[in-house]
């Protein structure tokens, strides 16, 4: 392994591995960052004291016990696509920590089955699956599907415990809305089942803030029949000036804000240096799409591409159009985001200011993107208090990215400027999707903006299930008693 005298933590983890190759890595190992840490956002360097790759739920449990005995924090990694690289920076005041890598076969069964009584399909699979792999497996076992995002390389373990939003979410809800039961390893190293009827409070918290409460090793989810036909469209707008995009965005936003918008339809507005792309997905035939009247309300004047495909084909198409087919490639980037309700929609004045800003400000990079995506529909049907996901009243999500090799201060300022224009125009928009983490946020601000009115209940559940804050990162949920202690110390 390349290190000298072993620490008690290393001895404990190595005992679990029992000589197995590629089981655990330490900072002293050759190419530790490249082979073991594998940070997604290269702008943020992280150095855990160990990276552990368990094969079974029992090994996860034993590794957590090793960590707690050494007073070390634990964070799980599934696909490894955290914008904040699991949000870890070097802070001498913080306890050391380890990364626990989920495996796709962790927890055992990867089967799909049908109950004989009412033809209700469920799938059970390990938490390390990437979305693209999961789509293939569900297709092979009965042409089934579930709602999720567009990036095929994202791991379901993190995705389905934060939210999991994508093109089919307006029709089916979020990924976590499909979850019926989980197998989870808790802070004391016990393997538990959590569902609506067993450990209900833990199950509530895991669906929205999972990383703070345990390591899920297995999911059981309800599935949907694959849509037989999917219509994909793309409008590409190229203008000499960014400000010419203002009326295009305004028309697009009017379509998205319609409370009666057909739930089979979802859409993205993607602004880039040379123009904008409006992409959309309609789960149905071309004739059904045309009968909705949506096409007549969308902006005109751009290059139009229409494609009729099937479910798997639509997933590939969306990844290609948004550049997410390259999602395995780490780079240096910086991102900002905001979740918007109907009343937070951008006014025409804000829209004009936004594109005036992007057209007149040096971005410091050739690679920047601003994305708005449609929400609502089935997502908002779910009662707000049924899960820890706080965005049941949102109709739009916005995020912006700047990419650089290396990332420079001017590019970050450009992204901050975009965010400031939107935030100034929508001053009452206070929440962000936890899947778009912002490492620049302080601990208390992050908790409030990610979990909003769910935060107090999450803190109480955290105090019950993880009182010593084993599952910790700089933006994770604090146990309620820790907040009381910190307040007393401050006085």
From TrEMBL:
Q: Where is the FAD-binding PCMH-type domain?
A: 44-226
Listed Pfam families: BBE, FAD_binding_4
What keywords appear on the UniProt entry? FAD, Flavoprotein, Oxidoreductase
Cross-referenced InterPro entries: BBE, FAD-bd_PCMH, FAD-bd_PCMH-like_sf, FAD-bd_PCMH_sub2, FAD-linked_Oxidoreductase, Oxid_FAD_bind_N, Oxy_OxRdtase_FAD_BS
Q: Which Gene3D superfamilies match?
A: 3.30.465.10, 3.40.462.20
MF annotations from Gene Ontology: FAD binding; oxidoreductase activity
| Family under the similarity heading | Belongs to the oxygen-dependent FAD-linked oxidoreductase family.
**Know the name of this protein?**
FAD-binding, type 2
Give the source species. Answer: Moelleriella libera RCEF 2490
């Amino acid at each position: 392994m390349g290190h000298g005298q072993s620490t008690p933590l290393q001895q404990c983890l190595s005992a679990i591995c029992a000589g197995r190759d590629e089981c655990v890595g330490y900072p002293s190992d050759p190419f530790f960052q490249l082979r073991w840490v594998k940070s997604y956002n290269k702008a943020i360097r992280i150095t855990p004291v160990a990276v552990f790759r368990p094969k079974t739920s029992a090994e996860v449990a034993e590794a957590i016990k090793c960590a707690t005995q050494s007073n070390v924090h634990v964070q799980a990694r599934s696909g490894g696509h955290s914008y904040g690289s699991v949000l870890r920076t070097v802070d001498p005041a913080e306890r050391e920590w380890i990364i626990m890598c989920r495996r796709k076969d962790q927890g055992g069964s990867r089967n799909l089955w049908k109950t004989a009584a009412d033809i209700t399909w469920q799938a059970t699979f390990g938490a390390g699956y990437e979305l693209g792999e999961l789509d293939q497996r569900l297709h092979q076992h009965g042409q089934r599907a579930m709602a999720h995002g567009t990036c095929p390389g994202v791991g379901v373990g993190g995705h389905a415990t934060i939210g999991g939003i994508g093109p089919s979410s307006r029709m089916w809800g979020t990924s976590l809305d499909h979850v019926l039961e989980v197998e989870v390893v808790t802070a004391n190293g016990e393997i538990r089942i959590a569902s609506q009827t067993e450990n209900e409070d833990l199950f509530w918290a895991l669906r929205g803030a999972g990383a703070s409460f345990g390591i899920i090793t297995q999911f059981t989810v309800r599935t949907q029949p694959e849509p037989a036909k999917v219509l994909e469209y793309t409008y590409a707008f190229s203008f000499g000036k960014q400000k010419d995009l203002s009326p295009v965005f305004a028309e697009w936003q009017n379509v998205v804000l319609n409370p009666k918008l057909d739930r089979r339809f979802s859409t993205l507005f993607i602004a880039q240096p040379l123009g904008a792309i409006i992409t959309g997905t309609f789960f149905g035939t071309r004739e059904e799409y045309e009968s909705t009247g949506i096409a007549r309300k969308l902006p005109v004047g751009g290059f139009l591409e229409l494609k009729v495909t099937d479910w798997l084909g639509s997933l590939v198409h969306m990844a290609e159009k948004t550049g997410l087919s390259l999602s395995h490639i780490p780079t240096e980037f910086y991102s900002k985001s905001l979740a918007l309700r109907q009343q937070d929609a951008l006014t025409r004045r804000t829209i004009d200011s936004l594109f005036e800003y992007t057209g007149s400000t040096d971005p410091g990079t050739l690679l920047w993107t601003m994305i708005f995506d449609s929400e609502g529909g089935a997502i908002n049907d779910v009662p707000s208090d049924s899960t820890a996901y706080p965005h049941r009243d949102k109709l739009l999500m916005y995020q912006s990215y700047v990419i650089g090799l290396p990332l420079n201060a001017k590019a970050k300022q450009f992204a901050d400027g975009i965010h400031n224009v939107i935030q100034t125009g929508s001053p009452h928009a206070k929440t962000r999707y936890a899947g778009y983490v912002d490492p620049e946020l302080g601990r208390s601000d992050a908790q409030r903006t990610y979990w909003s009115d769910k935060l107090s209940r999450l803190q109480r559940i955290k105090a019950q299930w993880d009182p010593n804050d084993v599952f910790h990162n700089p933006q994770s949920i604090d146990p309620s008693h820790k907040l009381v202690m910190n307040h007393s110390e401050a006085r």
